[in-house]
Amino acid sequence: MVDAGAFLTALDASDYRMTAPRRAVAALVADQTGHFSSADLVEQARARRLGVGRATIFRTLDVLTALDLVERIDLPTGEHAYVACEPRHHHHVVCSRCGRSQDIDDAGLRAVVRGIARRTGFRVDDHRLELFGLCQACQALPPEATL
Amino acid sequence: MVDAGAFLTALDASDYRMTAPRRAVAALVADQTGHFSSADLVEQARARRLGVGRATIFRTLDVLTALDLVERIDLPTGEHAYVACEPRHHHHVVCSRCGRSQDIDDAGLRAVVRGIARRTGFRVDDHRLELFGLCQACQALPPEATL
DNA sequence: GTTTTTGCAAACCATTTGCAGGGTC
DNA sequence: GACCCTGCAAATGGTTTGCAAAAAC
Known about the structure:
The structure is a homodimer. By secondary structure, the first copy, chain A, is of the alpha+beta class. Chain A is built from six helices and five strands, in the order H-H-H-H-E-E-E-E-H-E-H. The structure holds a DNA duplex.
């Protein structure tokens, strides 16, 4: 769950045009509690009768991704998903049960990457770290609890 | 490029049946120098007239993945790809130019993950680190060199 | 002989694209 | 007013599935 205002501010500051469909999708994204798929948004948009089409949802997700307001992640299952996030942070811990994600800071990763580069001889341009597990709240739940 | 024998040994030791199509796909995978897509295999299988169908290639990739002989990775572009790898190693540096990948050891990552778990309160069950850049050989090439 | 695996073609799913109309700057 | 954005529907590309025949154990 993210403040929808941040999306609007960022959209406004960008070269993209501020349109009703984009506002609608941004609000939808802000409402998501955990990671979500494009299909989730399409379905919710239809349920709420927002009148935005599939294509626009995909296109808006691209825009939000370009603005670093949303990041596309790959779940352990291989499915694609998105998470809303703060610009500048680029790694997440994702809860396998509730889907909630949390941004994480560098935490020494930078040094690890540097070490790997040195040892392999690669020039490392980009890296992605994704963590999966159970968030605190979900750990506290009885093992069989379903969402 | 990986020893094809390792695939056969692992297949043999598993509960999966050893069949000609699986041997063929395993050999194909062993021949790949870098990461490869399912489409690559399909095309090569057809070029070599191996007589294995699309479906079997996908199914065999699943088998090899289950045996940890192959790992599915997600390129920065969002495309899916596979890399042959040693069981037990689960991180790679992938060259963006030639596609070659190299397994990397823990390199302090374990400690980073532990730190993140402590700080976020998550119980981290799984993690994935993927590095992208240029391998030594490709760095040495003139910038405009094409594959 | 039973169970797994295969190839084929069709089905499926997520994502992209072409285009004419409408909205934004 | 020029250019960007939208919805729609059709196209696309990758992956899965149903099924009867073939192969492995």
